[in-house]
Amino acid sequence: MNQPIAALLSTALNHELTASEIEKLIEKPKMSELGDIAFPCFTLAKKLRKSPQSIASEVAGKLSDGMIQEVNAVSGYVNIFVNQQWVTENVLQAVLREKEQYGSMKPAKENVVIDYSSPNIAKPFSMGHLRSTVIGNALANIAEKNGYHVVRINHLGDWGTQFGKLIVAYKLWGDKAAIEASPIQELLKIYVKFHDVAETDESLNEQARASFKALEEGDEESLALWKWFRDASLQEFAAIYELLGIHFDSFAGEAFYNDKMDAVVGELKEKGLLAQSEGAFVVELEDMPPCLITKTDGATLYATRDLAAAMYRKKQYDAKKTFYVVGNEQSLHFKQLFKVIGKMGYDWSRDLQHVAFGMMLKDGKKMSTRKGKVVLLADVLAEAIETAKRNIEEKNQALEQKELVAKQVGVGAVIFNDLKNHRMNDIDFSLEQMMNFEGETGPYVQYTHARISSLLEKGQFTEQAIEFEALGEYAWPVIQLLEQFPSIVQKSFEQADPSQIAKFSLQLARAFNKYYAHTKVLVDDEWKQMKLSFAYCVAAVLKDALRLLGISAPNQM
Ligand code: ARG
């Protein structure tokens, strides 16, 4: 309710404060006898040199709207009682009318680019990449719901010195047949071996640098090996994306920019931004280390490729906003990148945002690929699905499409576990916890949705015109949540924070379950159709919230 009430207050105040400024000031009165919403007039009083109480009275006199039941000016506060009847009717009718469009913004023509997932070729898809994939996908769905046209880009790590290492390792120890049978696992094995051996044999790194240089210069044999590594890896990644239900508009990764870097390096030089430092070229930056553009041997770097990518995307998509969904450990890289673009004179560097996230921990420890100590995402998903299957066998033997539902629940559990806390938090990975049907989990929200679906079926719900009366004290918290959904959709985009949607879905599920525990829905009284329509609204919004997160909502489980 805060958003529409803030707008009304803003008008009553002749826009002395904007609606969003007011929204930040709005409180919930300490005692519910005082009202549902309180607006304190103290800061405004200072600004206008008036007493808080006189402002409060003035505003209270002007506020009138269907959604407001009563307004009082008390000790410098505007205390507002909302009209529950009015809000109930308006919110539920809006959901019934708009269904999965409820909370959607009108489509604008603007683009939003989301750079996410972006695994490294020839390495396993790590849990860190899972985080990027899941967060990026949710942000993409949320941006679409906010009316943007979204470009989903997988900026594959398919270029860089590691391919020099891999080519050297392959020539030394590669087993073609083994790689064909199980590409990523085998390539990882020789990659790890490379690092082990290079610890004592310095010449190996030298060779790798030379080998990458050859690759960048288009050496055919190296290119053929690279392409083989890339194709084989992509095939393995595709299976994971399919399981997660994720798609991309572009797989233009680092290699894609290989022929686009000279232009950027040239532009940097022209603009006088390139400085030589021990044979390498860098852009000097204030308050942070310089950004390395080319190495002594002329080879380009990760940052150079990201620069070229930013220029290319600007031309191609002219996005209103670009999100880079990448772990927090790369925050310096993105600060440098955006700074360099700003120094080149491009004010659109302001529209670029690093959407950082914390680490995935296992038993409180970091998971790393370098040493081969890696938890494979594919294994984790398989285990989650297996657990879901066992749960179904226990609880709902007769369920149709067990396989499909187990997949939806297992995958949903993993995704929800990732998204339910703010992305900057590290998350600990406990399969048991994330699968708990009664915890703060994906399966809990899915289960609530499925329960409502079966309720609607048993009650033979069909849509028909209806007028809502008060649905009782346990329904009111549910209605308030439904009312908030559109503003949560908006905020989760503005703050690039899918956890707001996840938390919302938990609250909504919990509030509805409480209502349901206190209400007999399936009795043939005069309110039955009203109660079923209400339940239908909750199911529709739960389903859409899960969809935004990238989670399916089966009708039975
Ligand atoms: N491949 C990189 C990694 O795994 C992430 C790339 C992120 N995107 C970007 N435009 N730099 O660390």
Short key terms for the protein model shown above:
557 residues, alpha/beta, Gyrase A, domain 2, Rossmann fold, Isoleucyl-tRNA Synthetase, Domain 1, 3 domains, binds arginine
What this model shows, in words?
With 557 residues, the protein is an alpha/beta fold. It has three domains: 2-82, 2-Layer Sandwich (Gyrase A, domain 2), CATH 3.30.1360.70; 112-258 and 322-366, Rossmann fold, CATH 3.40.50.620; 377-549, Isoleucyl-tRNA Synthetase, Domain 1 (Orthogonal Bundle). 54% of the residues lie in helices and 10% in strands. It contains 21 helices and 13 strands. It has helices at residues 2-12, 19-25, 42-48, 52-62, 84-98, 127-145, 161-173, 176-181, 183-198, 203-216, 220-244, 261-270, 302-317, 331-343, 377-395, 402-419, 431-434, 442-458, 475-494, 499-518, 528-549, and strands spanning 37-40, 68-74, 77-82, 111-115, 149-153, 274-277, 280-283, 291-294, 321-325, 352-355, 360-362, 365-366, 427-428. The strands form four sheets. A four-stranded parallel β-sheet has the order 5-4-9-10. It is globular. The protein starts with a helix and ends in an 8-residue tail after the last helix. Mean pLDDT is 93; it is low at 369-373. Bound molecules: arginine. Residues 115, 118, 120, 155, 157, 306, 324, 326 line the site of arginine.
